[in-house]
Amino acid sequence: MTYTVKASNKEGVEPEADLQDDVALEADVELENCEHNPSKAEEDTGEWGSAVEPEMAPAFAADSAVIDSQEPIDNAMWMYLREIGKVPLLRAKDERALARKIEEGQHLTDVVAGITRGGVTPSATDITLALFGRIARAKYLVNALGECLGLHSGASFNDIGSHPGLCSAMSCVVDEELTRRLAAKLGQTVEQTARDLVILWLDSRLLPPEIQTPMGKGCSVSTIERLVDDPAFADDLRSREAAASRHYRTVGSDAKKSAQHLNEANLRLVVSVARKYRGRGMS
């Protein structure tokens, strides 16, 4: 499978109607560039929904000094290459962290598109309810996961999501053994099971932190299933509309920044290779 895939505004800011436009992402970033090395993949042991901040690699020696010493080229191009030469190269784990943010932003865009009706942009509350509904419909998968991970029956959603075995499996490198066992239990293909795992993981990560706290760590999928149809729960979500709206905007913004960062780092790598082979058949 190809998945390798916080800023807040001041309180009191009302959500704008064009939420969908703010989270829409450019789909021109190839996530396949991210390296997946299961033997070196680091475990993400945070709870579902917690943000993973990429730990960026220390800056390498910039290529700008070398570019300065070479024969002049077009001034605008020279300045551009000089700036690109200052961009730090990325380690594999940095690429995976950026790819996760890009994947989360794209997933949010897909969720919003799926609930948009008649050109009316859904509210942050609508998005949150849609995410809860998707998680509730994946109850069969969550229960099977609990059994495969050796958790007691009725384990909370948080217990399953924060289990080290699953966190390792979901840190951009899907655990093949866990996926095979889960696929056999569900009677479906390994590929479909891996996709379902990633979608469930993304749905849970997109939930606003402000919503997860009042739900409590002991909330089970059965409880989520009941909450989705509870008018009082919907009213509670509406009271948190502003905070949820800021959260979804941040997800979209982080995804765009991560895509730009990944593109610049990849271009820096190209510039470094071109400089290395300059005069040896490459110009």
| Category by helix and strand content | mainly alpha
Cα distance spanning the termini:
37 Å
The residue-averaged pLDDT reads: 73
Q: How many helical stretches?
A: 14
Q: Name the helicity range.
A: 55-70%
The ordered string of helix (H) and strand (E) elements is: HHHHHHHHHHHHHH
The main β sheet shows up as: none
Shape: globular
The overall strand count is 0
Describe this structure in words.
The chain is mainly alpha-helical. The protein has helices at residues 19-23, 64-69, 75-84, 92-115, 124-137, 139-148, 157-161, 164-170, 176-186, 190-205, 209-215, 221-228, 231-238, 241-276. The chain has 14 helices and no strands. The longest helix has 36 residues, at 241-276.
Layout of strands and helices, then pairs:
Layout lengths: L18 H5 L40 H6 L5 H10 L7 H24 L8 H14 L1 H10 L8 H5 L2 H7 L5 H11 L3 H16 L3 H7 L5 H8 L2 H8 L2 H36 L7
Helix pairs in contact: 4-10, 4-14, 5-12, 6-9, 9-10
Summarize this structure as a short list of keywords or feature phrases.
disordered N terminus; 14 helices; mainly alpha; 283 residues
Short structural summary:
It is built from 14 helices and no strands. 59% of the residues lie in helices and 0% in strands.
